[in-house]
Amino acid sequence: MLGLLALLTASVFFGAAIYINVAEQPARLGLDDRAALAEWGPAYRRGFEMQASLAIVSGLLGASAWWQTGNPLWGLGAAIIILNWPYTLLAIMPVNRRLEATRPEEAGDETRALLVRWGTLHAGRSALGAVAAAIYLIAASRGF
Questions:
Q1: Nearest-angstrom CA–CA distance, 70 and 35
Q2: CA–CA separation, 133 and 51 (whole Å)
Q3: 75, 63 in Cβ contact below 8 A?
Q4: pTM of the predicted model, to two decimals?
Q5: Residue 144 has pLDDT above 60, yes or no
Q6: Which whole-number Å values give the CA distances from 37 to 46, 86, 99, 109, 117, in the listed order?
Q7: How many Cβ atoms are within 10 Å of 71's Cβ, its own excluded?
């Protein structure tokens, strides 16, 4: 049961992350620089709260399933979903800080380049979510 909940939360994480890459980010980049930056701020804060929580919950559930079953795939999936935290802190946060330090009325070419870079880096979170969910799915299929 813990493993299935880990799979569910990793899948929701992946779904939210990929939505940002295929829907929200392209729509944001269709706006002018000022509006794109103004939209990014609140959207990022809300998305961060949701995705950070999902990564932690999924990681804890996956680690618990590993402890309960002894199947190392649960532990591997947990480690990968938790990698979103250091990845975000080390790779994405420097871009976030620069974007957050820019007032919308100062937005320009550099801001757009940072938003594009942010989207590329965010795709890494989507990939981590996909890999974790796939590993959890394999672990779950071996448990039936």
A1: 50
A2: 14
A3: yes
A4: 0.92
A5: no
A6: 15, 24, 7, 11, 13
A7: 17
